[in-house]
Amino acid sequence: MSNLKTFGGAPLEVWFVTGSQHLYGEETLRQVDEHSKIIAEFLHNSPTIPVNVVFKPVVKTPDEIFNICQEANITPNCIGIVAWMHTFSPAKMWIRGLNCLKKPLLHLHTQFNRDIPWGSIDMDFMNLNQSAHGDREFGFIMSRMRLNRKVVVGFWQQEDVLQKISVWARVAAAKNEMQTMKVVRFGDNMRQVAVTEGDKVAAEMTFGFSVNTHGVGDLVKVINQFSEAEINALVKEYEDTYTLMDSLKANGAMRSSLIEAARIELGLKAFLEDGGYSAYTNTFEDLHGMRQLPGIASQRMMAAGYGYGGEGDWKTSAMVRVMKVMASGLKGGNSFMEDYTYHFDPSNPLVLGAHMLEICPSIAANTPSCEVHPLGIGGKEDPVRLVFNGAAGSALNVSLIDMGNRFRILVNEVEAVDVVEDLPKLPVARVLWKPQPDMQTGCAAWILAGGAHHTVYSQNLTTEYIEDFAELFGVELVVIDKNTQLRQLKSELRWNEIYYK
User: Fold this and answer.
1) Among residues 46, 424, 434, 439, which one has the fewest Cβ atoms lying within 10 Å of its Cβ?
2) DSSP code for 92
3) Contact 360, 337 (CB under 8 A)
4) Cα–Cα–Cα angle for 460, 461, 462, nearest 5°?
5) Cβ 267 vs Cβ 216: under 8 Å
């Protein structure tokens, strides 16, 4: 994924908006403006902040506030506003603007000076530097209006402050992406499965992304259009990038499977690009006209930034895409994932995460091996796939669930461990992890919360990102972490039923 400052060819930006009023006179307002420019420029140039930060003139009247909010709404590459009250800005001035604002809002509770100048402080200094109570006035009106926003407190040059702004900016970029995202389903959901279903109209009303279906035959038409030269060029890329098993090498017994896999990837990529789709689903139950289930194709499309969901799981596909957007430029990866089987050794309990084929190589600990094996399901030719072990480290499993009257986002913090066994007869990409707070509590909590068997597995995002994301959309968030207790979780789920009813 590209850096968010140039994401999708359009520079994403947040606007730095400072509030004041005419009461303090022109000299004070000049200093407010100057200080605001300095802070905005510092944030813009900070390597921690992943988007462009644009200074906007200090707003001092209800009309100025309303106009800047309206302008933000209609500026496509503006993904949010960072607001700061350098002086006291009477909050009734903000009501009309905040009522119309559709972009994410971060309230930066800071001040220009880090320290009190003990020997020189006077009333002029006090009149200029009033954030301590000016921001509280601003905070009250947002609470009174029941507005979701992120509040970041601290000196604007502190690294922890910059990190929190960075998290919010990445989530704002993800919201911007989700509101215009198009997800295509090739075929329908896997038959009789509950969790991959859901209300696509409600999803578009809540999050903005659309989900529509194309017959697999539509994709096959595109797959069959590519020339031998184009296919051979992609096969050469496979050879240069991965370790190929002998049967897939030139003159190997299964070379034709590799050629067909390349043809499928070219067709899939062209279909998504032509339709403006950034996420997709398929299912092994609906492969009309396809010789093999897309394996390496789906893995490589995810590595290129596309969302993917197996068995028609459009909700997970959308979340894979937006979490990849959030993590643009960060070390590590995000992938479609499935809790596949358990290791119930009391001294070392583990979850084996995998899927039939489609795990993103962005989470690999080593160079993937390109292999072909029978799938044992679906009744098609043996599919090509990338086989690897996932890297160890802290990670998340995230599930977007349709609860009927609302959407719930469920997070389980996990700790991935090195795969030390050879697994010679399991030719799929896989990850081993320990759920927080422990195996029994973590798995029971996931089931009690209605978590899906499909997730987005993330190596580079923390719960803070998902919390900000849920708040931006006003949807329920349930977190399973080291502090989770089942009795408390059950109560939380009951309370949430009342709150969201």
Assistant:
1) 424
2) G
3) no
4) 130
5) no
